[in-house]
Give the backbone structure.
Amino acid sequence: MNERTKKAERITVIGFIINAALTAAKFFAGIFGNSAAMVADAVHSLSDFITDLIVLFFIRFSGKDCDEEHPYGHGKFETFATLLISAVLFLVGLGMMWNGVEKIKLASEGTPPLTPGIIALIAAIVSIVSKEILYRYTVKVGKEINNAAVIANAWHHRSDALSSIGTLIGISGAIILGGDWAVLDPIAAVIVSVFILRVAVQLGLPSVNELLEKALPKDVEKEILDLIYQSPEIKDTHRLRTRKIGNIYAIDIHIKLDPSITFVASHDVATEVENRLRCKYGKKTLINIHTEPYDPSKNKKAKK
């Protein structure tokens, strides 16, 4: 197991343990503290617990090197894990919204929810502090090892912290004002669910694009071409194809060289370009360079 995989597993296990404890505590506080928002928050923490399991399962696969069945590596296991996390987040957000709307509807019909207890308030404060700390630590590790699934899991932690902030506001208002104002508890749950749905979409779309083989952003492709044209022997390029496989870039391109250049010299130019691209985007960058003779009459520089 490489160091990148070890770091990803370590931070995910830490999150797993914290989420297990928080889930149990929130369910206890929500049920015995009469707080719908806290129960919804507990469900959100349960989803964090589940996504930790997803990340732990897929991290081992994504960290494996290329083999005969996976010549391009296992990076898309990481992408798939990110997509699963976003899907879980989206479902959690919908569930929280539905539950909150039902409570609000009952309140409008003359049946306000019970006023939450102090235990629910304490649980919300503990959740906010612990999950924000966990978010900051997890996203730091995720960026250090360039792991999209770990970063997505970090945002799941932060969404739980945001959920608890909304829960804290709703519970506080319901406790202080009492009576009909207890409806602030489910209203807080609905507001938080909107933020959770937004985060889910923001995490899921890049993963969908990657699984559908979408090209790298235009500015990255321009940067790739700029690096390639640093070799003066290259007269023209075409058929640039790019994609992302987990945290690895895959680059295919045709370069045009002077027809009089020797086979060995053309190979040296291609090798020089490969080294330059790997120096910029990492040693695992997948590069395929096809060399062609340059025809001045067909000079259309730097086009795909």
